[in-house]
Amino acid sequence: MKIKFSFKFCLFVTLILIIYNHYFNLKLLQFSCPWPSENGKKVLVIADTHITFVWKFNLDRIVRHWEMKNNFEKIVKIYNPDKIYILGDIFDAGLYFEAQHYRYMMNEFNYIFGSTKIIKIAGNHDIGYHDDKYTLNRHLFNRNFGSMDVHIDIYNESSILSLNSMSLKFDECNFCKRSMNKIKSFSRKIQKDHLNRPVVLMHFPLYRTSERDCNVYKPFWITEEIHHIPNNDILSKKSSEFLLQQINPQILITGHMHFHCEIKRTYFNDILTEVNIPSFSFRMNYRAGFALITLDKIPQYSVCELPTEYIFFSIYVFIFFMWFSKLFIYFKCKCM
C-alpha cells in the first residue's frame, strides 16, 4: 500500500505549526493591534488575572497560569512597553489569604510575570470590598506589592493616575481620606502645571445603571438590564462625580467586568472615554485581552484581543491526529 505522505512532510508540518503557535500567533498582534501612536510614553495595561490558589494538582490552574505566562512574555517582548499596570483582581481569593498563603501565591505571581516591573492596583478579590474588615489582607497586599492607593506618573504634559477603587467611598475611614486628599492635591497640580487631562486607571468602572451604552461587542451572558451594585461592582454616583469633578480625565481604563466595553460620557463640555478592558485570563473570558496606551499631548489607546485558546489547542489536536494517522498507516503497511 502506498503511503500518502512521508515522515519528512509530517515533521515539516509539525515544526511549522509549533513555531506558529508559540511565536507568530502572538507576533501577528503587532500588525493587527499596533500601538495607537509611535510617539510618547508606551503603557501596557492588563486586568483580572485571577491567579488561583490550589494546594493540590489542578489541570485547569496549571493551563491557565501557563497561558498567562506565555502570553505575557510574548506581549512584553513584542511591544516593549515603558510601563506596565495590572488593574486589580490579581488573585482570585486574595482577600482570604493568610501570610503562608501569600508566600505560595507570590511564587505563582513571579512564575507568571517574572521580574518584570509592574505597577499593581488592588481589586476587590485582592483586599476585599470597602466595608470588609480584611485589614491584614490590605497590609499583605501592600507589603508584597509595594502598592499605593494613589499612584501618579507624569510624562511631559501628560499623566496617568492609578487609584484603589475601594478607597473611593465618602466616609471617615483613614485610607479613604488619604485617597481623597491625594486626588485633590493632584487636581491642584494639574491646574498649576497646566497638565493635560489625565488618563485614570482603576479596578471599578464609574457609576452606570446598565450596559446599554456599551458600544462594542459584549459576551452573550451580559444583558443591558444587568444591575450593578455601587461600591461592589461600580463606584457610587457620589464618588464618580467627585472623581470627574476633581480630575476630569480624557480616558478612564477599568477592569472588574472581565469584558470589553466602551462608553462615551460628557462632563464639563468635555468628552470622557471610559473603557472596560477584558480579563487577561481565558478562565474569566474566552475573549481575553489587554490595552495599549500612548501618553502624548493627546493620549490614545487600543484594546487588543489575544488569539483564542481554541486555535492554540486545536493545532495540537490536529498534530496528534496527523501523527496517529501516519503511524497507523505505517504499521498497517508493515504488517501486510
From TrEMBL:
One of its GO terms (biological process) is GPI anchor biosynthetic process. It is a multi-pass membrane protein. It comes from the Eukaryota. One of its GO terms (cellular component) is membrane. The keyword Acyltransferase does not apply. The chain crosses the membrane at residues 7-24, 310-331. Gene3D superfamilies: 3.60.21.10. Its cofactor is Mn(2+). It is found in: Membrane. One of its GO terms (molecular function) is hydrolase activity. It holds the Pfam family Metallophos. Keywords: Hydrolase, Manganese, Membrane, Metal-binding, Transmembrane, Transmembrane helix. Residues 42-258 form the Calcineurin-like phosphoesterase domain. Belongs to the metallophosphoesterase superfamily. MPPE1 family. PANTHER family: METALLO PHOSPHOESTERASE RELATED, METALLOPHOSPHOESTERASE 1. This is Metallophosphoesterase 1.
